């Protein structure tokens, strides 16, 4: 527990830690050997962001999304993205009701607390763009009428690497709306052996019961918003983001939205450590998952196989870190 906090703040952090630990344990009972990925998913949830899970097929991307959704007792909808999916299949459509002799709006799956989008980059860019408004503004506009989305609202999308057959690259505006991108990676041999025992007979998802609800998540989000970010840490974030915009190996740097997402995620990351203040370490830990997917390398960097992740990692090591006392 952090010292020097007011009674209400301390109890808020205590409650956050308890609920977050329950959600984490529930998800980890399904997704073995991936504590870092689970923590990042929780960080994005508590920072009111959206999560992009990218990796090759079969490593548990959809399993992580489903486990997070099932551990929270809230409205959950799942969309399988395919090339023939239409924007109205996501947002909803106005249909004519012959009995009432008027058009009525039939909500799409986006009207849920948690939307699981499976293989999002198999849909056309036009369909992918149907998520832009709801991810940023928490609303959907159909036929000139705007409909608010209930909070919390989170999109957890999975995608295969763009080198896979039948995929479309996500537009820059779409990627910029995802708070973080994580890669599952292959499990280590011990975790894979345990997976054979746990998943061999039946799916642990079938036994997963909710350990929190939408009201709990809303309360946790309010606690995270109160986390203290010192001026020196804020300046450190600005320096890091600015460095991506001036880097010779990048033709597109991080946006101002990325700056906001990094600070919000750092607040949640600190809260999960039972602290009511953000450290430069939190920013460093989150720099790659929050920034790298938004950056575009130059043609020369691509030829040399220099990925944005490498650039961000180098910037983190190169930039001076503020003192905790600043």
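^ structure tokens above, recovered residues below v
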């Amino acid at each position: 527990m952090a010292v020097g906090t007011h009674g209400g703040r301390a109890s808020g952090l205590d409650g956050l830690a308890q609920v977050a630990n329950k959600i984490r344990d529930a998800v980890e009972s399904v997704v073995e050997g991936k504590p870092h990925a689970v923590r990042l998913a929780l960080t994005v949830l508590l920072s009111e962001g959206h999560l992009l899970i990218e990796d090759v097929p079969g490593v548990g991307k959809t399993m992580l999304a489903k486990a997070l959704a099932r551990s929270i007792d809230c409205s959950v909808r799942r969309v399988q993205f395919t090339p023939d999916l239409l924007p109205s299949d996501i947002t909803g459509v106005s249909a004519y009701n012959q009995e009432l002799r008027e058009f009525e709006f039939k909500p799409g799956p986006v009207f849920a607390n948690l939307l699981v989008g499976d293989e999002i980059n198999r849909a056309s860019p036009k369909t992918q763009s149907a998520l832009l408004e709801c991810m940023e503004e928490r609303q959907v506009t159909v036929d000139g009428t705007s409909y608010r989305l209930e909070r919390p609202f989170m999109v957890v999308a999975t995608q295969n690497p763009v080198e896979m057959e039948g995929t479309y690259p996500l537009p820059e505006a779409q990627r910029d709306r995802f708070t973080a991108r994580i890669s599952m990676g292959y499990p280590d041999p011990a975790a894979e052996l345990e997976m054979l025992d746990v998943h061999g007979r039946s799916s642990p998802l079938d036994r997963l019961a909710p350990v929190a609800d939408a009201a709990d998540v809303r309360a946790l989000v309010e606690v995270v918003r109160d986390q203290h970010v010192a001026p020196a840490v804020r300046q450190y974030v600005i320096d890091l983001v600015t460095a991506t915009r001036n880097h010779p190996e990048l033709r597109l740097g991080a946006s101002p939205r990325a700056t906001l997402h990094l600070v919000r995620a750092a607040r949640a990351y600190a809260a999960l450590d039972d602290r009511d203040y953000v450290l430069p370490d939190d920013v460093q830990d989150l720099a790659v998952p929050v920034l790298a997917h938004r950056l575009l390398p130059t043609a020369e960097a691509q030829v040399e196989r220099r990925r944005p992740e490498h650039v961000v990692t180098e910037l983190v090591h190169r930039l001076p870190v503020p003192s905790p006392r600043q």
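The first strand starts at residue 51 and ends at 54.
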